[in-house]
Amino acid sequence: EKGTYPHYMLKEIDEQPLVIRKLIQKYQNENGELTIDVDIINAVNQSDRIYIVAAGTSYHAGLVGAQMIEKLAKVPVEVHVASEFNYNMPILSEKPLFIFISQSGETADSRAVLVQVKELGYPALTVTNVQGSTLSREADFTLLLHAGPEIAVASTKAYTAQLGVLSIFAAVLAESKGHNLEFDLVQDLGIVANAMEVLCDAKEELEDIARKFLATTRNCFFIGRTMDYYVGLEGALKLKEISYIQAEGFAGGELKHGTIALIENGTPVIAISTQEQVDLSIRGNVKEVVARGANPCIISMKGLETEEDSFVVPPVNELLSPLVSVIPLQLISYYAALHRDCDVDKPRNLAKSVTVE
Ligand code: M6R
Q1: Are 137 and 110 in contact (CB under 8 A)?
Q2: What would the pLDDT profile of 15-51 be if each residue is shown by its tens digit?
Q3: Is-contact 143 126, C-beta < 8 A?
Q4: Does residue 326 line the site of ligand 1, with CB under 6 A?
Q5: Does 1 score more than 90 pLDDT?
Q6: Where is the signal peptide (predicted)?
Q7: Which of 8, 12, 13, 57 has most ligand 1 atoms within 8 Å of its beta carbon, as the pocket-test mutant?
Q8: Distance of CA 115 to the CA centre of its chain
Q9: If you ran DSSP here, which 8-state letter would residue 217 be given?
Q10: Using a 6 Å cutoff on CB, does residue 275 contact ligand 1?
Q11: Rg, C-alpha atoms of the chain
């Protein structure tokens, strides 16, 4: 039930700190260490490459998860859109292992790939919110999101829970391979949960940002580099899905290769900067669009902020930054949709789970 909330989406956004705290507990053993079923870790350690297959928001979570796995566990990962995979199957490695990410566990496009993967005899792990769902039953292994039912069509808490589970998976896998983590993931996810709380309390400020940048616009661009690029893709999907503003996320470096032609006077460009390594480059990209008349909204992480930034998120482990930087984007989308009188929880033409290919 949505209780006193006007929409499920807002309730589910607010649940994110709790979901992350619950997730930590669910994946902790009696000594407080994070664990993943040893059969899963063994299966991954017998494989030579991970293929992540998913759709929509879950695909965006996969892009971030792949970075976490490659950076921490040093296992090569490819991320694929489910609906393309079957028609355009890449040349697989000798010992592939598949990870299906799906909130509902019912997405037909992902299931079609799973059926094929099982026919080929490869191991498959499903990361899902729904125990007993089709993708969970048909895969060899399941990791649950423990996010509680997600009712709003726009996925919010499932995305951050997916990132939480993938970070735990990456860390446990890294340790099994003898790679030393230079941080304590339990502690850092706790910091993330606290930061999420701060962000959920910033609703008024984010509503003002939505009003200032998106009240009358027809389109909006999201730019970022590395992790921030993937979060930008998710921010753009959220915005278009519920507010019907045409939104596009792209890599900051790609601007000059075409998209910059679309920038006009007043075009909102939401730039995300949470990664020290690319902070200067993305700020350079912001200057390029501003010179063409764009209305820039910079969302940065504390420590990298400058005076021109519109919103600053609390500092967290850079690898976990998408779990926090996505929240202002979710809330900005929510308010943009609200201001436009859109049906936030049930956007037109969309269903919660897409059960046709
Ligand atoms: O249940 P799944 O995670 O497999 O769903 C995948 C997509 O259909 C889903 O993420 C969709 O993109 C959402 N409406 C995004 O908010």
Answers
A1: no
A2: 999 999 999 999 999 999 999 999 999 999 999 999 9
A3: yes
A4: no
A5: no
A6: none
A7: 57
A8: 25
A9: -
A10: no
A11: 20
